[in-house]
Amino acid sequence: MSNHGIWIVERSRLFRQGLAMLMRETPFEVTFEAPQMSDVDTVEARDRPAIILVNIETELPADSEEAQHLARLCAMQGNLPVVVLSDGFSLAQLVAVMRAGASGYILKDIAPEALVQSLNLILAGEKVLPTNLVPALLEGRDTRFLQDETRSSGAALSSQEEHILRGLAQGYPNKRIAMELAISESMVKLQVKKIFNKIRARNRTEAAIWARQNFRRSA
Question: What is the pTM for the complete model shown?
Answer without folding.
Answer: 0.61
